[in-house]
Amino acid sequence: MDATKPAGERAAPPSPPPPLEADDQLVIRVITAGWAVALVVLLIVRGSLEAGERWWIWTCACGVAFGLFGMWYVPRLKRGRARAAAQRAGNQSAPRASGSNTVSPTETPGSSTRS
Q1: Measured in Å, how far apart are the chain's first and last C-alpha atoms?
Q2: CB-side exposure of 46: number of CA atoms within 13 Å?
Q3: For residue 23, what are the CA distances in angstroms to 29, 35, 72?
Q4: Is 4 exposed, middle or buried (0-12, 13-18, 19+ CB in 10 A)?
Q5: Which of 71, 69, 66 is nearest to 35 (CA)?
């Protein structure tokens, strides 16, 4: 921005970029595989671990368990959200005569003043 220009002549800040979509299943699989590798390594060297450090084995086991749960849950979550969005799109009420979908100050949400 040029500080020498008056406020009215300054350019508007650019709009933020759209959010990026990630392949959730790939991310879950890679992270779960990482926890599984760490678990196998810790199981191999567990004899040399001090008693106070063996909690790492359970941490890795929980990471694998949560990863497996995520592989099962995330697709169902996405399908449910897509179904809900499709329902909302199909059940959209007609816009008001004014073109606004907001509730006027005289209307109570959930009740109708029309007879």
Answers
A1: 56
A2: 12
A3: 10, 19, 15
A4: exposed
A5: 66
* pLDDT per residue as tens digits for the range 57-112: 999 999 999 999 999 999 999 999 999 999 998 876 555 555 555 555 555 555 55
Q: Amino acid identity, residue 24?
A: D
Q: Is the pLDDT of residue 32 over 80?
A: yes
Residue 4 one-letter amino acid: T
- The pTM for the full model equals 0.60
Residue 68, Cβ density class (10 Å: 0-12 exposed, 13-18 middle, ≥19 buried): middle
User: Cβ distance 40 to 26 under 8 Å?
Assistant: no
Burial 39-50 (b: 16+ CB within 10 A, else e): beebeeeeeeee
Cβ neighbours of residue 26 closer than 8 Å, sequence gap 6 or more: none
Q: pLDDT category, 12, cuts 50, 70, 90? A: confident
